[in-house]
Amino acid sequence: MKVTNKKILIVGCGGMLGQAVYHTLKANNNVLATDIDLNEEWLEFLDIRDLDSIFKKCDSFGPDFIINLAAYTDLEYCENHQDDAYLTNGLGQENICLVANKHDIPVVYISTAGIFEGSQEYYNDFDMPQPLSIYGKAKYYGELHTQKSLKKYFIFRAGWMMGGLHKDKKFIKKIYDQLLKGKKELFIVDDKLGTPTYTWDFARSMEKILATEYYGLYNMVCEGSCSRFDVASEFIKNLNLSESIKINVVSSDYFKNDYFAPRPASEKLINLKLKARNILFMRDWRVCLKEYSEEFIKLNKL
Fold first, then answer.
1. pLDDT of 113-172, one tens digit each?
2. Burial 208-232 (b: 16+ CB within 10 A, else e)
3. Which residues 6+ apart lie within 8 Å of 180 measured at CB?
């Protein structure tokens, strides 16, 4: 089962997740993809902080679903630009909900494992969020407002996002960029735990779950959990560089000047509700990372 023959408005579609969501959904639906950064020919301009513009776009397009991918995800940027973080990650979703209520449109909101404070090892869909960072607080506000104001919504909580290659600004791409610069030693933390989330699995899962109309909040991450060190080691192994690259284990304090935003010690999510409803379509993170690694191997730059 997949969502088909629907008009779907995607906002904030210019990033690494947007690429996967757009190409997955457009095969069987009429998709209007928007962003403030028009980095693809298939994007139209829309700023979710501009309520009037969202109303006009929905009035003209008439979507059956609105998917909100728009967010500042750089934690340090959010700490330094708190107004921007709240206006985009919080008020932006509030604007989407206002429009959705007027037109009775189901909304998809992407949240994050970063809404938890990290003292537990694992978090299921029912655990109480206590965000540490401005990023986490703004995203949690979006969750709460969505639940309070809408009847028809999907909230999907992602973990450590990977995918998107050139659009990837996250952990995997940062490792690859170091390798491109000729680094033979990597310094990787082992005191941060989480669950990777492959953009393509996330998009394909969303495509199937939207068709069920089983509205609600879901953790949706790859199966299995790990540390940052585990991810880096697996990626280096996939690139066949284990013999030539040394990975040094360090604590988070090693990067405290560059990555000063508070981060949970554990962001491990459990897909409890997806499993219970038999709609879990996410694969193991190692399988997904190997698939993603093949994209870097094809670049043939190392």
1. 999 999 999 999 999 999 999 999 999 999 999 999 999 999 999 999 999 999 999 999
2. ebbeeeebebbbbbbbbbbbbbbbb
3. 301, 302
Residue linked to tokens 């409803």: 277
Contact 76, 261 (CB under 8 A): yes
For residue range 73-93, what is the model confidence (pLDDT) as tens digits?
999 999 999 999 999 999 999
Q: How many CA atoms lie within 13 A of 115 on its CB side?
A: 25
- Amino acid at the residue 205: S
